[in-house]
Amino acid sequence: MTAKTSSTTKIRNKKISGAEIIYRCLELEGVEFIFGHPGAVLLTLLDLFLKRSKIKHVLTRHEQCAAHMAEGYARASGGVGVCLTTSGPGATNLITGITDAYMDSIPIVCLTGQVSTAMVGNDAFQEADIVGMTRTVTKHNYLIKDMKDLAPSMQEAFHIARTGRPGPVLIDLPKDIILGEADFVVPVGEPDIRGYKPKTTGHIRQIKRVAEAIKVAKKPVLYVGGGVIHAEADQEVKNLAEKADIPVTWTLLGASAFPSDHPLALGMLGMHGTAYANLAIDECDLLIAVGARFDDRVTGKISEFAKNAEIIHIDIDPTAIGKNVNVAIPVVGDAKKVLVEVNKLIKGQKRTIWQKRVELLKKDFPLTFKTAEGGPIKPQEAIVALSEEVGSAAIYTTEVGQHQMWAAQYIKVSYPRQFISSGGLGTMGFGFPAAIGAALARPDKVAIDIAGDGSFQMVLQELATAVQYGIPVKVIILNNYGLGMVRQWQDLFMDRRFSEVSLEVGPDYVQLAAAYGAKGLHIEDRKDLRPAIQEMVKTPGPFILDVKVDPDELVFPMVPAGGANRDMIFEKPKKKKSLKDKLSALPDN
Q: Is 462 a catalytic residue?
């Protein structure tokens, strides 16, 4: 991509190093924190973080976590997260985090060191073709070969990352570019990039069709995804829902786009969504999708999804529309801008019959779990207690697994960016580093990672990062001593033959926290649950709360893979199934 600008400004007459150009570009973009791990290629750039004070470099213990911290920072702040690693393995260790950001449309800029341009392609020490490797999981990437391209590429990278459908952008920085010298010439204003013109304003004819469809619908449902949060369109969604009396469901990434306690809230839909959300979509005659991509975990059997409904799809990414489902009314544009125009055309409506039906579904199919006096703590009750004790004072992140689904079901959210989870890639180890990034982005909130013991063990070394920088991130581990979600599938579909999911050999998390200089607490009795949560929140600095939970508890409702969302199961089947039936019910991944 080539930038075209009407004018440029030379900041200094004296030539400066590539490292200083990079640093000054970061300053101009308002970067506060950069997450990374050092290497020899980066020495002159790292030296600037020591000499200057405007940008804080946060030393991570693993490069993948640098990307996740940048994601957490971006998602909690609404800005662009930045990470920095050295060449070769430092760069390749970023790829999981980059892919996670790409799948979930998170704006991060990844800076990677590289061997000198003369050595590129010669299998030099710690050389890796990171541009080639990340081409399919970035919005765009750059290998800087000429000093004059450095500043414009930095500006373009941030612009591309945060505009249109957000996503990760990578800039590969050869050693001679970092060490070289050039005039610091920066384009004035937003870059004009050939071939990159995100459409933000919806077509008025399509918007009118949306308004008319809403007017005549008898049983509409709003289905909102992470795009609503990116576009800061939460208030427009709420205005539309209240004005047109439409119930609202959301995806995992759309959680916190609509208040959980709102009378029109249906909760999350899909494989482990609420029964009433799935059933409402099954019965609706109009489905209004905003900033969502009709993921397979949402739709279930695609031919049966919203089978009776006309579908409206509002999204800034034209390639997402019609990709997975047939759409009657497509609208390409920024969710906020489009909904502002839709709301101007909508008149107040009441759908008494439909709302009574939805309320009946909520009454007949509530989220439930059973506890027994003297029995083990249920993971759901731990999450309910956490939500009630901390509430809106917290930003919640999650790892990936059973605990993630329980958190999505039971955490009550009240404002955008309060719930942060890995959706498309489902990355174990995401939540803890993301919580560190979120804590730095929102120091006015308590950043709490809801974790499983399996996920947390993948990234627990980042306790050192949290302690070193005094980041008061909290972790509540729902400890079932196993890889819970895989164990659940083995329980349901493999006659409880639990292969390679036991984590009975693991650390003492209280001692682990102490070893890193943090605080920790282990509980097994439910009477200790709420006092322990209170202690976790009020204790300064990082804290691990290890809660032993029932290892046999399963996540319900559950839509078996390949099934329609209306075919949810609410408990373990009592009747034995054939091997063919069991295998066909297994998830694809």
A: no
pLDDT tier for residue 487 given thresholds of 50, 70 and 90: very high
Model pTM score: 0.94
Percentage with pLDDT > 90 across the chain: 89
- Asked about 126 being catalytic, the answer comes back as yes
For CA atoms 401, 406, 408, 411, the dihedral sign is negative
Copy the structure tokens of residue 86.
Answer: 């050295």
Which among 125, 500, 538, 571 is annotated as catalytic? 125
pLDDT at 215: 97
Token digits for 404?
Answer: 């993630």
Question: Which entry of 139, 175, 238, 548 is annotated as an active-site residue?
Answer: 175
- Catalytic (active site) residue 404: no
Residue 553 predicted with pLDDT over 50: yes
pLDDT of residue 587: 60
Taking only the tens place, the pLDDT of each residue in 23-53 is: 999 999 999 999 999 999 999 999 999 999 8
* Banded model confidence at residue 8, pLDDT cuts 50, 70, 90: low
**Residue where the block lists tokens 């890639």:** 425
Helices (H), 294-441: 296-299, 335-345, 352-364, 379-390, 402-410, 431-441
Determine the Cα–Cα distance for residues 135 and 154; give it in Å rounded to an integer.
17
Q: Please give, one letter per residue, the 3-state secondary structure of 58-90.
A: EECCCHHHHHHHHHHHHHHHCCCEEEEECCCHH
The secondary element (H helix, E strand) that includes residue 8 is strand 8-10
What is the three-class DSSP state of 390? Answer: helix
Q: Which amino acid is at 309?
A: A
DSSP string for 76-134: HHSS-EEEEE-STHHHHTTHHHHHHHHHTT--EEEEEEE--GGGTTTT-TT---HHHHH
